[in-house]
Write a structure and sequence with these properties.
This protein has 555 residues and is of the alpha/beta class. The chain has 13 helices and 23 strands. InterPro entries: GH, GH39_as, GH39_cat, Glyco_hydro_39, Glycosyl_Hydrolase_39.
């Protein structure tokens, strides 16, 4: 028996000896065979995970928000993007749930007054942390809204309120499209002057959010197309080389998306009378649907992946657009980051982490199957400043302490640029997952890459839709073409590794952790490498349910 297995076996025997009489032994582990062949290249693996976003743009300027931006920017320096709502919304810049503002436009004596200092502060934070904007043009400034008399510009929203309660004056078309166009033109000119042409050419420009939902857009589809055409023409007037697209619809977009795709390829442009609208990328949103079943959370990974597949199919069916890059502008287990609740109780711990690993791996696979260019899959998750510890929001950090899911993005960042052949005899087939999710046997999956230095980075996950206990996976990993002894490096995210929420629970879930406890939480959140012995390309490890691991092997 190798030294590597003595400690786990001793611990297991001690647990059995300490168990009360009559206690059932732990379930037998799931024997799992994983094969990797570094000599067989499958395809390029674009870093689709490098996009993030939030409803509340002003949190980016607060210390916790700025700290998290720095963590995101460090994932892949110079390649991270951030999208936020409310960059043109009127107000004083105070963040709130699903809200934010910059007061970019007011009117004085019937003439526009532009004030960029709040929005500059937000974008400056992105750039200071090496992050580029995925620039959402919205929402409608109070000075331009066509909302009927009596409709408030803003309705405060809080967790527990009806989601439709966010709709207010900011969601309406402009009274004068030429003033809307001038606002966008002046903003783009300002951004080019402030950040430089080469930088702004790297941004993604899109108009509004989920205009196919009436609580985000109070106009009709033709009014949105006019809004879109007018804004895109204004961006291109200021910067002819700007990367423009959209429409960031909810879901695959249904008839609304069909109308948009036809319009940008065939119709007369509302802004300039040309045929079609410049379109450098396409965007839609894909969400899962967790529910509460018999007192536990059941995730809806099939819903999210089916939506992504439907969106890919719509775009692939339009010859003029089929080769365009696609960004899933919000890509999440469900729809409302600011809405906690029993069905969203997956968020703080390793279930969110394992779901993320399993779902992103299948997005790469779906894109290849559909023959589309998937450029990004944006996680709509950031942080909520000034809220209780581990309050249940969909976020990457709580009060400056990283959550387990952020560590999965750190593992993604360690993957190489080329996918290589890998298989697991306990991976759920893609078609089964699309139809039914992971409701029977768990999904013990693998995605392997060749790194830039010629080594291998192998991502493993052990996922199930149901948040209930289950046996761990006893994995035998075989990497072809390797001989002799080697020491690989292993990174883990699971209930007892890189999981601050578990450490907080073990403390008794203190409402106000003291300084020493906060330092312990930060320590518990960190990824820590372990040595993984390999003999002739073979290694063994245990991966608990809801676990994610990355194995790095040198060239």
């Amino acid at each position: 028996m190798t030294k590597f297995w003595r400690a786990p076996l001793a611990a297991m025997l001690a647990m059995l000896a300490a168990a009360p009489a009559g206690t059932a032994p732990p379930p037998a582990p799931l024997a799992t065979e994983i094969q990797v062949d570094p000599a067989r290249t499958i395809a390029a693996l674009p870093p689709i995970w490098r996009f993030f976003g939030a409803d509340e743009p002003n949190y980016a300027t607060r210390p916790d928000g700025d700290h998290l931006l720095a963590e995101l920017g460090a994932l892949r320096p110079g390649q991270i993007y951030f999208r936020a709502h409310n960059l043109l919304t009127s107000g004083d810049g105070t963040p709130d749930f699903k809200w934010g503002s910059t007061n970019a436009l007011t009117m004085r004596g019937g003439k526009p007054v532009y004030d960029w200092h709040i929005v500059d502060g937000i974008l400056d934070r992105y750039r200071a942390r090496g992050i580029h904007p995925y620039l959402e043009i919205g929402f409608m400034p109070a000075a331009l809204t066509s909302a009927p008399a009596g409709v408030p510009y803003r309705r405060p929203w809080h967790p527990g309120n009806s989601y439709a309660g966010i709709t207010a004056g900011w969601s309406y078309p402009p009274t004068k499209y030429e003033q809307w166009a001038e606002l966008i033109y002046q903003w783009t000119r300002h951004n080019v002057a402030r950040y430089g042409r080469a930088e702004v050419e790297r941004w993604y420009f899109e108009v509004w959010n989920e205009p196919n939902l009436d609580f985000y857009w109070s106009g009709d589809v033709e009014q949105f197309l006019r809004l879109h055409d007018t804004a895109i023409a204004a961006v291109r007037r200021a910067l002819p080389t700007a990367r423009v697209g959209g429409p960031d619809v909810a879901g695959a977009g249904g008839a609304f998306m069909d109308r948009f795709l036809h319009h940008v390829t065939q119709d007369t442009n509302y802004a300039n009378g040309a045929r079609g609208t410049p379109t450098d990328f396409l965007s839609f949103h894909a969400k899962g649907q967790p529910v509460l079943v018999d007192g536990h959370v059941r995730m809806g990974i099939a819903d999210q992946l089916r939506t992504a597949d439907q969106g890919f199919a719509k775009i692939a069916a339009i010859p003029a657009l089929a080769a365009k890059p696609i960004v899933i502008g919000e890509n999440d287990p469900e729809g409302c980051a600011a809405c906690p609740g029993p069905a969203n109780a997956y968020r703080n711990g390793p279930l969110y982490a394992s779901y993320t690993a399993a779902s992103y791996a299948r997005l790469w696979e779906l894109a290849r199957r559909r023959g589309v260019t998937l450029d990004g899959a944006l996680s709509w998750s950031f942080t909520f400043v000034g809220q209780p510890w581990f309050a249940g929001y969909r976020q990457l950090a709580s009060n400056g302490v990283d959550l387990a899911v952020l560590n999965v993005f750190r593992l993604f960042a360690r993957l190489g640029p080329r996918q290589i052949a890998a298989s697991s005899d306990r991976a759920v087939p893609l078609d089964t997952l699309l139809q039914a999710g992971v409701r029977a046997a768990p999904d013990v999956g693998v995605l392997a890459t060749r790194t830039a230095t010629g080594g291998s980075a192998i991502l493993l996950w052990h996922y199930h839709d149901d948040d209930v206990p289950g046996p761990e996976a006893a994995i035998r990993l075989r990497v072809a073409g390797r001989h002799g002894l080697a020491r690989a490096r292993l990174w883990r995210v699971d209930a007892t590794h890189a999981n601050s929420f578990g450490a907080w629970q073990a403390m008794g879930s203190p409402a106000r952790p003291d300084r020493a406890q906060i330092e312990r939480l930060k320590a518990a959140s960190r990824l820590r490498p372990e040595a993984l012995p390999m003999v002739d390309g073979t290694a063994t490890l245990r991966l608990p349910r809801q676990g994610v691991a990355l194995i790095e092997i040198g060239a």
